[in-house]
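User: Let's play a game. I give you a shape written as tokens, and you guess the letters that built it. Ready? Here's round one.
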């Protein structure tokens, strides 16, 4: 369901340019990327596009909630093509980020251990991915 406020927000913040379309297409292919990684992919299709342009486009897309952002273990922001609430598994060896869904019981168990803390929808769980375990 689309609300009038969402339409107005889209009109105010989003210019549907070729650059924006290419950024969205490349992010969909990558799934997760830093602005720099996204810029490298987009620059192949739009030579001369700047990292600043990529940053501005992803900021607008985040305001529109068509993409999301999650921190990695280094504190860098990772742009996520999936805007829906979800958590991530991040490999400490290769840095690969994988979308995961935590069941309600797991989230409640974490919440209980934090006592007064509040668990958010977007958690990052670290470990070693299957590819790195068998290297």
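Assistant: Ready! My guess for every position:
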């Amino acid at each position: 369901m689309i609300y009038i406020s969402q339409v107005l927000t889209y009109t105010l913040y989003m210019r549907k340019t070729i650059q924006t379309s290419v950024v969205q297409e490349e992010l969909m292919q990558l799934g997760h990327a830093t602005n720099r990684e996204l810029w490298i992919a987009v620059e192949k299709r739009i030579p001369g596009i700047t990292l600043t342009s990529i940053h501005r486009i992803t900021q607008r897309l985040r305001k529109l909630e068509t993409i999301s952002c999650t921190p990695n273990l280094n504190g860098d922001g990772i742009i996520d093509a999936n805007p829906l609430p979800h958590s991530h598994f991040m490999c400490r060896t290769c840095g690969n980020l994988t979308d995961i869904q935590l069941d309600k019981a797991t989230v409640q168990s974490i919440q209980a251990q934090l006592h007064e803390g509040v668990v958010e929808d977007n958690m990052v769980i670290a470990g070693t991915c299957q590819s790195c375990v068998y290297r």
